[in-house]
User: Fold Bacitracin resistance protein from Agromyces ramosus.
Amino acid sequence: MTEASVPGDRADVVDARASRPATPLWLAVTIAVVFGVFYAYDVWEAVGNLVGLNIYAGQLEVALTAYGVVLLVVGIVVPLLAYAMAFWLGRRRSPLAQVVLFLAGYALVQALSADVAALFDLGGLDL
Assistant:
């Protein structure tokens, strides 16, 4: 084996990560709380959809199908999971990376919320 074929020392990689400045705790908490408000609003909206559509279906003397209820429950769970994943993936990253992760998760939540709204607004679906 030649010197060039030997993989690099893993200590160099660890040292490079250790020299990178960590995000201050107050900044990480501030970012998490600001985005947490947006995610919490989506959870609140999803709970409102679940309760409101059940009340509306009850007034019409019909019931939501299991598919409709599962879809509404998924609308509650997805913002919580997206927030948890963004928080977990960004816990040791720079502030910009944390913001980007929270924004990507929020974009996913908004896209799925729009899909749920579109499914319930279509008159042809029996939910």
Observations:
- The two ends are 66 Å apart (CA to CA).
- Residues 23-121 form one domain.
